[in-house]
Amino acid sequence: MRSLVLHILFFRKRTAPVLLLALLVTIAGCNLNQGTGEQMVNLDKVTDDPNQHLANLNKAISRNKQDASLYKRRAKIYLKKGELDKALTDLDEAIRLNKSDMANLFLKAQVLRAKGETAQALPLALKAERNSFQNLSLYVLLSDLYLQLHQPENAAIYSKKALKLAPNNEFALYYQGRVAEATGDTVKAAANYKLAIKEAPDFAEARRELTGTLLTQKQYDEASLQLQEALKLVPKDGLLWFYKGELYQGTQKPDSALWSYGKALNLADTLHQAHYQAGQLLFAKRDYGGAISHLEKAKKQYGNTIKYVAILASAYERTGEKIKALEQYQRLVELQPGYTGANYSIARLKAELTRPVPAYVAEPVSADTIE
């Protein structure tokens, strides 16, 4: 089962988190009231075949459209299949039919989170908690939601509650690590990730986060070991290949690093950090056009950082794109007033752009040269 969980919709963290979707559905399964729909159709008979299970639920609902538990169970299947709008429709119906079942609110919060609607998911999860729906999966969800909303202090409240309920649960330990990392405590983060891995050696997500933390600490040997194990579990994870590039870069292997960043981007082109690092390496190799192509794609994440703007400005200037270079140097001065080098470059480029161009007198074209 864990292998299935870890391979369903895996990309997360510093890009677009979705691993929790599979994990929450799995954890929550035993907590949900199954209702009375099974009196008409034996719904548990085909649990290994979700499509058949779905077909049986459809039949059951067609016979009894007032059973909220049937809509809830069908919503769970839709959630696992990634059919989020259908899951949301069923949960709205389940809530209409049974407003006292907080599991419906919890599931709806999961669906909204999976749709990227974090702010809408949070109040539903909190309402479920206030109405005595209190379990490990809910606390994990709340911790994740608060992390996504950049509220690590609130996330810590729920990661602690999760640990209190299940001190050795790998997911509770993992989110305790996430909270520690968000507050800058990389030592505590690494310790919690290691505890999570001890409980579940094939927990690829924890290994991936541990790898990133170890790289931050420049512990390259241990990072390499964790990276190898994580890649065995999820060899097509873009962020892991980015970390491999960081590992190569940290150990002074720029060509291998550039190759790894390329591999990461082939798997996940939205990894802004991979574009940024690849752009810097290409700039160092004097491939200014290649550097620009990557740096422009990293603007959303790095557009307000001094180093990024300075490299991009220089790359534009070296490829003859003087107006774009001028814009970036002006941006540098906005970010850091009094930046002497940027002010000098602005004055120089303005002089070059306004310098009179010598008149060009065309030579008369001879009729003999026209074909």
From TrEMBL:
InterPro entries: TPR-like_helical_dom_sf, TPR_rpt, Ycf3. PROSITE patterns: PROKAR_LIPOPROTEIN, TPR. Gene3D superfamilies: Tetratricopeptide repeat domain. TPR repeats lie at residues 68-101, 136-169, 204-237, 306-339. The keyword Thylakoid does not apply. Keywords: Repeat, Signal, TPR repeat. It comes from the Bacteria. Residues 1-30 form the signal peptide. SUPFAM superfamilies: TPR-like (SSF48452). PANTHER family: TETRATRICOPEPTIDE REPEAT PROTEIN 6, UDP-N-ACETYLGLUCOSAMINE--PEPTIDE N-ACETYLGLUCOSAMINYLTRANSFERASE SPINDLY-RELATED. This is Tetratricopeptide repeat protein. It comes from Pontibacter populi.
